[in-house]
Amino acid sequence: MSWFLADEDATLAVAQVFAEVLQGAGLVFLQGTLGAGKTTFCRGFIQACGHQGAVRSPTYTLVEEYPLAEHRICHFDLYRLGDPEELEFMGIRDYLSDGSLCLIEWPERGMGILPAADLTLNLADDGHGRRLQASAGSSLGESWLQTLQQHSVLQPLQRDD
Ligand SMILES: Nc1ncnc2c1ncn2[C@@H]1O[C@H](COP(=O)(O)OP(=O)(O)OP(=O)(O)O)[C@@H](O)[C@H]1O
Ligand SMILES: [Mg+2]
């Protein structure tokens, strides 16, 4: 399933819809080349969940935590991860098992340690805007996708593929 995001505002608006639908614990991967819009999407998502301040890219800290009203969101950026083993030392298992919703940019860098995601998002430059593609990796992810597919804000942006 995929959607066309014409500009940054569209990325933020779509991320807000995802934030409404993706409630509770879960694991979401965000793939895409440098500058594809992964952090922009996470910013829209986290602010839609009630975070009032800035959303910084966790490029150097690897993870930023947002303890919000509904649930805790953990935003990872693994671009600078030296070795997937480092995830063990930072306690990745605890993050993934304590009921948080985890958004992970550059999940490829954690291969071998990270479990399969409930939902994998891929952002790609589309010439003028971005193409957001989503695929499910669990029954939770499937149920999220079904709800997203029927959402009135997303329907006009949806592409057949
Ligand atoms: N739908 C869109 N159309 C055009 N530009 C967009 C869109 N969404 C986001 N952008 C722009 O893309 C740029 C890069 O975004 P962002 O920092 O979110 O990328 P990223 O994928 O997190 O990159 P990195 O891999 O370096 O972490 C920003 O200037 C943002 O405004
Ligand atoms: Mg980023």
> So, CATH architecture?
3-Layer(aba) Sandwich
What spatial order of strands do you see in the largest sheet?
3-4-5-2-6-7-1-8
Chain-averaged pLDDT = 95
Form type: globular
| CATH top level assignment | Alpha Beta
CATH superfamily: P-loop containing nucleotide triphosphate hydrolases
| Cα radius of gyration in angstroms | 15 Å
Number of strands: 8
How is the main sheet built? 8 strands, mixed
Q: Domain count, please report it.
A: 1
Helix content: 25-40%
List the helices and strands and how they pair.
Blueprint: E1 2-5, H1 8-21, E2 26-31, H2 38-48, E3 63-67, E4 72-77, H3 86-89, H4 92-97, E5 101-105, E6 119-125, E7 130-136, H5 139-149, E8 158-159
Parallel strand pairs: 2-5, 2-6, 4-5
Antiparallel strand pairs: 1-7, 1-8, 3-4, 6-7
Helix pairs in contact: 1-2
Bound molecules: adenosine-5'-triphosphate and magnesium ion.
Key terms:
single chain; 161 residues; alpha/beta; Rossmann fold; 8-stranded mixed β-sheet; 5 helices; 8 strands; binds adenosine-5'-triphosphate; binds magnesium ion
Provide an overview of this structure.
It is a single chain. By secondary structure, the protein is α/β, with parallel strands linked by helices. It has a single domain (2-154), classed as Rossmann fold (3-Layer(aba) Sandwich). It is built from five helices and eight strands. It has helices at residues 8-21, 38-48, 86-89, 92-97, 139-149, and strands at 2-5, 26-31, 63-67, 72-77, 101-105, 119-125, 130-136, 158-159. Helix 1 (8-21) packs across helix 2. The protein is globular, with a radius of gyration of 15 Å. Bound molecules: adenosine-5'-triphosphate and magnesium ion. The site of magnesium ion (MG) has 5 residues, from helix 2.
